[in-house]
Write a structure and sequence with these properties.
Elements lengths: L1 H54 L5 H19 L13 H21 L2 H10 L6 H14 L4 H13 L3 H15 L3 H14 L6 H13 L4 H13 L3 H12 L8 H18 L9 E8 L1 H6 L5 E8 L8 E6 L5 E6 L15 E9 L9 E4 L3 E2 L6 E5 L1 E2 L2
Parallel strand pairs: 1-8
Antiparallel strand pairs: 1-4, 2-3, 2-5, 5-6, 5-7, 6-9
Length: about 400
Amino acid sequence: MIDFWLAAGLLLLIALSFLLIPVLRGRRAQREEDRTALNVALYQERVAELQVQQDEGVLNATQLDTGRAEAARELLADTEGVEKPRESRLGKPLPFLAAFLVPILGVALYLHYGAIDKVELTREFSQPPVSMQDMTRRLERAAAAQPDSPEGLYFLGRAYMAQDRSADAAKIFERTVALAGRQPELLGQWAQAQYFADNKQWSPKVQALTDEALKLDPKEVTSLGLLGIAAFEGQRYQEAIDYWNRLLAQLAPEDNSRVALQGGIDRAAEKLKENGGSVAQKAVIKVRVDLSSEVKANALPSDSVFIFARAVNGPPAPLAAKRVSVAELPITVELGDSDAMMPQLKLSNFAEVQLVARISRAGQPTAGEWIGRSQPLASTTTATQQLTIDRPDK
């Protein structure tokens, strides 16, 4: 803050200069006025002496006129260039009084109406926090300085949640919603904070918040995760699996939380089986694979055929795959979550998929001689899909 006050002091000095410089100039003008008055007095005294000398007969009329003219020239030379002093209506004490009051009033008004707290916060946020408590303290100060900022309140609520202060977070998210509107993400955060603030007791308020959030955005991740948690805590394991699968479909393949979420889905499936239930497989696609006449004439019965589904918007790795031979074609197969190549990449986790069938004489699923591809389709498709291997695999 030192440089701020130095800059403010410099500006104050500039302002004071506008008040004090005219006063100093006035003093100079006063000195000029006094000198002019002295010259006039000397002129009058000289003229009087000349008049006395004429009366005594020392000077004649011509000499008197010459002396007067000489004295007038000297007076004119002494007063030449002197400006006529301007009278100030403000009076001499007023500028000094203003110079005294301006700094005091300026500082007082700034401390009352200024933004010194925001300046300090800006400087503070430019430095990395030393701890989570330090960050929370800064966010609290920012929220106090800018109580109408939904962004500041949102980050404060997230900080409270990270410190298990869910009751405080619920109040903050409620204020955020009041300022920013009923946005799905904010409603989901509010519902989550309220749920944990109520000791994980599902309430009509939390239900209403999640319903509203998912109505506005069916992919709202916080609400989906929260509903999955509530379903798991309530031993409604199939519901938990469904909600978490919907959430998993929204996460990027490189998202680290996918592993933890898949672990939760697996635990829910185990609990469901322990209670005598079975996991409902939501995504099962039936596909009938055949060959075009050209490919049929060139393929060998022993060639491998890889049939798989991959995400349209997702990783290139297959979500579900099966292997047969050309001799078995045409064939109808089912691709589902049980055919997943990796536990975290399942067919039910992606909304749109593409079906691919590839013939590989070398038995390599990534490269072959002929291939067939389908158009993008929903992973929940129930109708049997027709897939023909009809072109070279380039």
